Amino acid sequence: MSNPLVHAFFVGRAIAEVVNEQIERTATDWLSELGKFDAEQRENLRQLVEEALARAQQAEAAATNGRTSSSRASGGDDVQAELDDLRAEIARLRSEIKQYRSEANPS
Q1: What is the DSSP letter of 80?
Q2: Calpha distance 22→4 (Å, rounded)
Q3: 71 in Cβ contact with 79 (< 8 Å)
Q4: What is the mean pLDDT of the segment spanning 84-107?
């Protein structure tokens, strides 16, 4: 009949093939899941960025609208007073810079 060594060889080969197929199937499933996870994370990141940008744009629009409406609502007197204060501050700083330069370079 059959030689036990030949029989053992074919049994061993069959076991190796089955194990190899199982490893391939497991690796393929694992890589597929990894690809799905990566795609989901990229989509989540894209949605997060879109939402953050939308919120930033809304906040910027609200701040811009609030600034223009508050300056209009406060009237021209407050704006003029603010401009006068800024001009006075600029003049003071120019004076200090001129004084610093004259002290640093006494010619």
Answers
A1: H
A2: 27
A3: yes
A4: 87
Rounded Cα distance between 75 and 38, Å, is 55
Q: Which two tokens stand for residue 77?
A: 């007197």
Amino acid at position 48, single letter: L
CA 73 vs CA 60, 83, 98: distances in Å: 19, 17, 39
> 79 Cβ partners below 8 Å, 6+ apart?
71
Residues in the chain: 107
Question: Angle formed by the axes of helices 4-74 and 76-104, to 10°?
Answer: 100
pTM of the model: 0.45
What pLDDT score was predicted for residue 107? 60
